[in-house]
Amino acid sequence: MSASSTAAVSDTTATIARPAITAVERHVRALCERHAARLQFHGWHHVSFVRDKAAEFAAGNGSDVAIVETAALVHDVNYLVRRNSTAAAGSGLRLSILAGAGVAPEAARWIDAIVDEAEMRTRHRDITREAQALSDADTLFKALPVTPVVLAHRYLAENGVSLRELANKIVGEQRDPHAEGYYFYSPAAAAAYSRWATANLELWQCIQESLDDPTVSRLLTAVA
Ligand SMILES: [Fe+2]
Predict the structure, then answer these.
(1) How far does the centroid of ligand 1 lie from the alpha carbon of residue 47, in Å?
(2) How far is the CA of 49 from the centre of ligand 1 (A)?
(3) What is the total count of domains within the chain?
(4) Which structural domain range is residue 76 located in?
(5) Nearest to 124 by CA among 132, 134, 114, 133
């Protein structure tokens, strides 16, 4: 997106009207509920949490709140398109939902770019503030103390991965942002939630270590 087009969609006259956001919400919620059986982790409970927190972080960092809120609503539709996929796999469905709700094409393309930018696997220190707000909300969901306890097994089932694969993914993706100080972009989020993030990362590193013990492996095979 060129600087001039970014300026155009950033203009307050071009932000997304509330009825369009409501239409996006209704469509995404209906899809999540229709496919709830296979969206055990990334279902409406996840999308609505990320939407609420992303809007809060967007208000805090001066982002376009309507753009961030709408991006949060469509950020994980790739899991409806293909199991265990990247955000880019959902681009077609994402743009189709936004067009159906009356979101202008330029704002829709901006949202699609924000979703790509915020992805945990590839995000970096210098992403845009809209992507930072979305990333902080999505990262917070991963770092919640309750997520490994009540939701991790749902991630395994939804995405068809093993516990070792999930542990390797979490540690592989989160270690560098955590070590280099951009796990959370918002100073308020970092202050409030860094202890949870540190504990969560330590837990998953311990899980990796435990899986190397053959007796633990036998235990997991026995309870599988
Ligand atoms: Fe997400």
Answers:
(1) 7
(2) 9
(3) 1
(4) 3-223
(5) 132
